Structures are given as C-alpha cells and as structure tokens.
Amino acid sequence: MKAKATISAEEDYYAVLGLPSSTTPEEVKRAYRDLARQHHPDVSGGDAETFRKVQEAYEVLHDPVLRQAYDRQRVARGLGREVPLECALTLSAAQLVALDTPQMLYALLDLHPRVPDLKQRLPLNLALVIDRSTSMQGPRIGNVKLAVSNLLEVLLEHDRLAIIAFSDHAEVVAESTPVREIARLRAAVASLTTGGGTEILQGLRAGLEQVRRFADKGTNAHVVVLTDGRTYGDEEACLLEAKHAQSEAIGISTLGIGDDWNDLFLDALARHGGGVCQYISSPAQLQELLLEHIRDLSHVSVNRLTLNVNLPPWVQLQGVFRAAPFMEALGVMPGRAFSLGQVGQESLSLLLELVVHQPDAGERRVARLDFEGIAGEDPITIRRDVNVQFVAEAAGPVEAPGRLLNTLSRLSIFRLQERAWQALERGDVKQATHLLESAATRLFEIGHRELGQVALVEAERVQRGVEPTSRGRKQVRYGTRGLTRG
Amino acid sequence: MTEQVDGIVCPSCQQLNLPGTLFCLQCGTYLPSGGPLRTEQFPDQHLQRAKPRSGDDAQAEQQVLGVEVEILRTHRKVLLSADSEILVGRLDAAHRVFPELDLTSDSGLEHGISRRHARLYTREGKWYIEDLDSTNGTYVNDERLTAYLPYSFDDGDTLTLGTLRLRVNLHVDARESRPW
Is A438 an 8 Å CB contact of chain B? Predict the structure, then answer.
C-alpha cells in the first residue's frame, strides 16, 4: 500500500531534484533515480534526511494532480512565477549508439499553454483589412459583412476594432473604435461596397497605422487581412511591412477566400507577421474561421515567442518544422533567435531534425533550446536541454514513441506535397507527379481518402502537362498542413 | 562502436537515408519496417522440404470450378474462383498489393504473412500453389515449399503460410456456393 504523499510547505521540490519548474515527468523520474542512488542511507556517503527529501519531492512531482496543486502553492508562496507554457520533449530515441557516421535524431517539442483566465485576457487591438475589389461582389462581400457583424458580438467592450476596405486604394471605413461603440462599427460594416482591383499594400499600411495608434504592451495588436485575389507588384513591400510590424509586436494573419488568391504570398505574409494563413473554401466557412481566429487571438498566452537553438559542433540542424497547430517549414538557424509569433489556445509543436555525429559513448547534450517571449507584460524564458545517452552497443530494437511517429508521418506527407509544388515551379513535371502521387498514397494510408483523391487528380493533371487547379492545389496544401490538428 | 552503418536504403525509392531516419526523405515511406508494416521473420524454420508433386492421377478429368479456403484460426471461409490466379497475402495499398485472398484480418501480420506471400492457380484440372519467396515460407501438409516452384495440392490438404493454417476444399458445388 502506498501512503498518499503530503505537500510540505517549506521545501522547494524542484530545487531538491535540481530541476526547473517546467520539467517533464521523465526528467523527474531520472533525477529521482540518480539522487536516490546517491543518497540512499545504505550507500557510503548516503544520508537518510536528504534521501527522505528527495523521495518526498519525487512523490509530489511525479503525480500530475499533486504536482499541479504544489505548483499553485509554490506560485502563491512566490517561489516560482507560473510559466504560461509547459514544455514537453519527445525524442525518437533516448539512447543512441555511438557511430562513426552521422545519424538522425528527431526531437518533438510540445509547448502547451496553461489556459489563461478569460476575464483576464488582454484587450484586443484589431484591424480588419477587407478586400472590396470587384471580385468580392455578391455573396462574398455579403458573407464578410455577416461574419464581421457576428464578430462584433463576441468581442469585449474594451477591445478595439478598425475596419479598412481596400481595392486599388485603401479607405478607413472605421477608425480604431472601442467595441462598446458598437453602433458606429455596425454602420461602417453595412456601408461596405465593392469595386476596383486588389492592392494589398495600401490596405495593410492603413490597418497597421490604425493599430499602431493604440498599441501598447497591455494589448494584443493584430491585423487580419481578408482577400480573394492576387496583389501584383507590391508583395515585397507587404512582407517588409509585416516584418516591421512583427518587431513592434503587431501580428498579421491572412484569410484567403475562394481559390484565386496567391497562397504562397499570403503564407509568407502571415509568416513574417507571426500569424496564420487560412484557406476559406466556402462562404459559410468564413464566419466560423473568422470567429475561431479571433478567439485564438484573444487567448494568446505568449507573444513574440522566439526560439534559439544552440548546438555543439558535432550536431547539425537539418530542419525545423512547426508541426501544430499547422505545419510549416521554419527557417531556423542555429545560434540565432527565430520568431515563432504567438501561442494561442492550441499547443505549439515543433519538430527538430538533428544530424548527430558522435562516435564516443556517454551522456551528452545534443541541443540547447532557449525560448523567449512575453506573457502578459512580463518577459519569460524557457530553457530545454536535449540530452542523449550514447552507448557502445544497442540494447535492442527501440520503438520510436507513437506520438512522434504520428507527427512525422503527417509531416512527411506535408513535405512531399510542398516539394511537389516546388518541383513544378522548376518545371520538373516527372518529379512533381511522383511526389504528388506519393503524397496521395500516404494520405490513403492514414485514411484521408478525400484529400488523397484530390492529390491524385492533381497528380494526373500535372503528368499530362496541365496546370494543377487552383482549388485542388489549395485543398492539398491547406489540407495537409492541418493533418496534425485533432 | 561495433559496426559501420552507412544508412537505410529506402525499399520503395532506393534513397539512402541516415541511420535513425524514420520516414524516407525522398518518398515518405516508413523506414524501420520498410513499409507500413513489414513481415517479421520467425526465428526457426526447420521443417522438412517438400518434394515437387505433379498431379497426373485421380481428379485430372474433373472440371475445376473454384477453391474454398478455410482459415482454421478464424474459421473464415473464402470461395475463390479458378478463372484467374489468386494472390494470397496482405493488402497494402501503398505498395499496390491487392491480394485476392487478403489475410490481414486473420492476423496475417502476426502470423508472418508477407504482402505477396503465395499464389494459387489451376492448370489442366489441378490446383497449384507457389511460394513467392515469402519471408516465413509456405507449407503443404507441413512440408516447406521452395520459392517459385509450383506444388500441386489436393482436396483437404493443409496449406500453411507463415504460421497461419488454411484448409482447402476443392469439391465445391458451383450452383450452391456461387450464387452470382
């Protein structure tokens, strides 16, 4: 029988085990084993009192319920500030055979936001930048109006909203207005009309300007661009604006309506702006996605999150990917801070591919990961070391953890199709066809038959030398990037 | 450090991947198993080899209509037509393997059934089975077949694929069991 552990008020259990408060259950176990072995009263140099403390710390920290309770007490005692992100690390192998040749190690990092209190959320400082070009005429603009009206209902009184309509030029339909003056915003939405071409830059600038006026640390500033078309010639300038905005902690997200918008550009714009790009394939989806998007923004737990990967010389970073909430290749360079944008309600998962070249046995640090960000108004830092035991000989076949395999299998599909479009861009039809077919096969394999079918149809078109359909391409791109969701 | 490992050659596309790679960089194939689920080889295979048999006796005149295969473990019975050859194995859409007799649902993987394990066909009124160089072999009445050599089998014979035992029934009443 096991006695229920009690939580002692004086001890800092994390300090007893020598672990940060963001530590994982595995690390708790490992630290406990090492310390218990060292301090066991039967061992020479052992000490019953220390041993008891170590045991007590372990009993509390390895039990999720007790640990949570203890964490709360600890915060209340001022011992530790609540880090709004929990960071869990999963490796493809905790043990590697020391090899004379390089080998691959995968590291999956899950950053789980601790759910912030709804009432305490930061006020939103939003600008909606709405495409009013001729192509938006009819049901599209109608749906946008409806979606924005519904959005007004869910925003809180102290949130701010600006509405900008753009075609060849931008018009500030509603200057940044507190949502409690809802009538003014409603009237502005109703007045939206269509006409003209699509030039995102003007609209984006106007939106950013509105948000900047009221930007301060205590708000969550974000510009949402809604468009159904392509912008020509101003892409570079837009990306530059997005980068500036990101450095001022203003996020940018993009929503593409229908099938004719430039997915690569809107992806890039959102990436530079630290936000998300979403594909709206049907009018009805717009309402849902816009609401969901704003809800995510209002639950931001960490802003301006950056990652810095530090590696010893015998480790190379082959690739870094965002695995969830949506998949994306990230251009992370070792030793340089990379901006990850915001973390909302959903966990952020990152996958690192590390090429490890270590011929000598022993426990080694393969990578050090430093996260920095802003939670509320306070800066936070999280440091995670990736440690691996190198052994002379394999103890036996090792099964990679299921979650990692699952993530990797989906990520590999996402990469296959991304490489297919790149091959097509280069004019390599054969390769593009092959990659799309492979992606389709894998999609069938994991039970995504519809998406697999779409990929197959596009593969056939490509093989025949016909351009892929804009719709099919977007369905495949945005469908596969969401494969790790739910 | 015991042996030199250069990498994992992808069974699908021959791309050389670093050791430890889980999904082929080139084509996305799951590498540790060479495919979605690879047939594992059983440790011991010391059963007697079968001698080739060809049927020139009894039932030669009989019109062969089909074969009923009973999977003894699950008692599943499958009626297969003699019109074309029958591939026996495990379905794997990714590798375009679509056996006529798919043993996946009979715990085929656990019983060491390969994706392309064996084929059955008729010639001049006789049934033949040919092992397709399967990982764990094919047996007729507990005698192991040599890969790619056809063996004839008779009504009531036991075919063992890996460790999964099948009984064949050749006296199939065409009207009763082929309602279509």
Answer: yes
